[in-house]
Design goal:
With about 140 residues, the chain is of the alpha+beta class. The protein folds into 2 domains: about 30 residues; about 100 residues, 2-Layer Sandwich (Subtilisin Inhibitor), CATH 3.30.350.10. It is globular and about 50 Å long.
């Protein structure tokens, strides 16, 4: 009888250990769910007029997923502009100029660097001066910061 009890206890212990191992394996094997959206986080800069294009006079951050946020003054409108442009800031530049500008060469460089919908992006445009920049940027919320 002792042998039967010892066998039953051994069988119960083995069953508990195997069952526990299977449960632990199934819990640890479960992968974390994939993200529901592709990341979009950007840094936008404007250089000092006439200064080095490598030194930013202003810089803002913009994150468009899961919601619009960042230090950009109007992140929701900036993200909407960028979505409408399929992530291409150059398509937001206006070709119609509302104000006559001088031909003064005082370059201002605007950059957009980061990740847009999961893809690395880098964009840079140099304007002749602040007047040309204001005319070309126009109503784009993305580049008005």
């Amino acid at each position: 009888m002792r042998t039967n009890m010892r066998f039953a206890a051994t069988a119960a212990t083995a069953t508990a250990l195997i069952g526990g191992a299977l449960i632990a394996t199934s819990v640890t094997a479960t992968a974390a769910p994939a993200s529901l959206y592709a990341p979009s986080a950007l840094v936008l800069t404007v250089s000092q007029p006439g200064g080095s294009t490598d030194t930013a006079a202003r810089a803002v951050t913009l994150s468009c997923m899961p919601g619009a946020s960042g230090t950009h003054p109007n992140p929701a409108a900036a993200c909407a502009d960028l979505r409408a442009a399929d992530g291409r800031p150059d398509s937001l530049l206006s070709t119609t100029h509302g104000q006559a500008c001088t031909r003064l060469w005082s370059p201002i460089t605007v950059t957009v660097d980061g990740v847009w919908q999961g893809t690395r992006t880098s964009w840079k445009h140099t304007f002749a001066n602040s007047c040309e920049m204001n005319n070309t940027v126009g109503q784009s919320s993305l580049l008005n910061f």
